[in-house]
Amino acid sequence: MRAGRRDVTITHPGKELFPGGITKADLAGYYRDVAPAMLPHVHDRPISMQRFNAGIERPGFFQKDLPRGAPDWVRRVSVPKKGGTVCHVLANEPATLVWLANQNCITPHASTARADRLDRPDRIVWDLDPSGEDEFPLVRRTALELGELLRESGCEPFAMVTGSRGVHVVVAIRRRYGYEQVRDAALAVAEALAARRPGDLTTAFRKVKREGRLFLDVNRNGWAMTAVPAYAVRPRPRAPVATPLRWDELEDHTLRPDRWDLRGALARLERDGDPWAGIARSAGSLPRAA
């Protein structure tokens, strides 16, 4: 498969990765075609691979280390860990996204920091992940209220349906702050929002303490943590895609977190462009509410 300036071999292209006939070749073709929009959101960010060698109907696994036999042209970075380092892929060109698909990597998860300054994240992520499918109206309402709070705090919020059950609200920040500062700021904003609606929202990590409330998850903001990036495919039936939104789309009562699949996401991009195209230019300070 030609991807950018390289040819990438797809082994077993007819392997069905999703029920209904979506194959490895279909996945690789999607990542080739979505690369112009997706690469700005993953460039130079260490990638953790969520792989499904037998398709999504069998258990998958996460892999951080670069797989053996990776081509020399695949960019990589060594990330410190306790007792050593981990060599992560950097998805910096279309061919790398296609090569990852050939590794049965359905979802590449990306760091909130870039490789040249691994200790200075440039994104804050609030993950609004409900416990059930019927709670999405609460997720939409909460995302809108979180956006209002963030604007009051001097930040520009961006929203994305995750392709799974929820919404990510994301803010770009300048690379001035360490992970602890960023996570503390994210938690302070989440606690301020939960205090407005304690019967609906919680920041409690343990499920037993949530008591049916929507969890405002800020744990994507820690060292070595990752988040689903824009335009990543999710390992669910129909191959839904994590799709960036225009902010006003959160007001759409027909919105679903898995509305766009491989073909739908590409058609939307061709028609409307990338709603997150300006996210990097919006980078500022930590939210004042923190």
Kindly report the name of the CATH homologous superfamily of the largest domain.
DNA primase, PRIM domain
Compute the average pLDDT.
96
Low-confidence region ranges: none
Largest sheet: 6 strands, antiparallel
Quote the distance from N terminus to C terminus.
Answer: 47 Å
Shape: globular
Helix content: 25-40%
The helix count comes to: 5
Please identify the oligomeric state.
single chain
Q: Tell me the Rg in angstroms.
A: 19 Å
Our count of domains comes out at 2
The CATH class of the largest domain is identified as Alpha Beta
| Proper CATH architecture of the largest domain | Alpha-Beta Complex
SSE-based structural type? alpha+beta
Number of strands: 16
Q: SSE order in H/E notation?
A: EEEEHEEEEHEEHEEHEEEEH
**What is the strand content?**
15-25%
CATH topology of the largest domain: DNA primase, PRIM domain
Describe the structure.
With 290 residues, the protein is α+β, with helices and mostly antiparallel strands. The chain has two domains: 1-111, DNA primase, PRIM domain (Alpha-Beta Complex), CATH 3.90.920; 119-290, DNA primase, PRIM domain, CATH 3.90.920. Helix content is 26%, strand content 22%. The strands form four sheets. Strands 5, 6, 7, 8, 9 and 15 form a six-stranded antiparallel sheet that branches. Helix 1 (24-42) crosses helix 2. The radius of gyration is 19 Å and the shape is globular. The protein starts with a strand and ends in an 18-residue tail after the last helix. 42% of the residues are buried.
